[in-house]
Amino acid sequence: MALEGLHHITAITGDAQRNVDFYSGLLGLRLVKKTVNFDQPDVYHLYYGDERGTPGSILTFFEFPLAVPGRHGDGMVHTIRWRVGSDDALAFWTSRLGAAGVATERDGSALRFVDPEGLRHELQVADVPDAPLAAHAPDVPPEHALLGFDGVRAYAAVPARSARLLEALGFERAGDAVWEVAGSERRATIAYEPPPAERRWRSRRT
Questions:
Q1: What is the pLDDT of residues 97-108, one digit of tens each?
Q2: Is the per-residue pLDDT at 198 higher than 90?
Q3: Are strands 120-125 and 77-84 parallel, antiparallel or unpaired?
Q4: Which residues contact 54 (CB under 8 A, 6 or more apart)?
Q5: Contact between 70 and 103 (Cβ < 8 Å)
Q6: How does pLDDT run across 39-81, given as a tens digit for each residue?
Q7: Which helix (H) or strand (E) holds 63?
Q8: Lower CB count within 10 Å: N or C terminus of the chain?
Q9: Among 20, 18, 64, which Cα is nearest to 40's?
């Protein structure tokens, strides 16, 4: 039995309210629930998705107050790719994000931007038979809503090392460093890219 795409993606935030304002208020995702990290109950677990919290739309965050962005490196998922329905949707998000002070970059059928803490996102015009997974936000027209995950981009110095694991999970090659998994209802991709050069830590005298 093949996996049904990506079930969920989890990240860390240093500011829960700012996170809710961005993902629910600006991107129009539904805040499905607010729970806690059961391994550390004093940590919030924010859970976004479509109207029903359907697998394939679920983005969650653990809040660690005052957490600062880490160093990008090998093995890190650095970009979340979302589906949208049309070029008109990309134009809508370009305008909406710009009005909120969020810089965007258009690249063909994709639109790129980052959240307030540096997590990258890419909206991609979808050409798949999967059912759309949309939330209902009053100020986001239904035809322009985010429609669930298309996949992720990750850093990998030697992506071939992941081949055996991905094949065991039902992924198939869809490009030089791109893998796709397709179940009976949903599909998703993982695209590997070379990691950035290591940054050297400098000591500072006081």
A1: 999 999 999 999
A2: no
A3: parallel
A4: 133, 148
A5: no
A6: 788 888 999 999 999 999 999 999 999 888 778 888 899 999 9
A7: strand 58-63
A8: C
A9: 64
Q: Which domains does the chain have, with CATH numbers?
A: 8-193 (3.10.180.10)
Q: Is the CB of residue 177 less than 8 Å from the CB of residue 159?
A: yes
CA distance 28 to 159: 34
Task: State residue 206's pLDDT score.
Answer: 40
- 83-106 as b/e, with b when 16 or more CB fall inside 10 Å? bbbeeebbebbbebbeeeebebee
CA torsion angle 100 106 109 115 (round to 10): -40
Query: Tell me, what DSSP letter sits at residue 131?
Result: P
Type of residue numbered 22: F
Take residue 158 and report the two structure tokens written for it.
């030697």
d(CA 197, CA 157): 10
Q: What is the token pair recorded at 156?
A: 């990998």
In whole angstroms, what separates CA 21 from the centre of its chain? 16
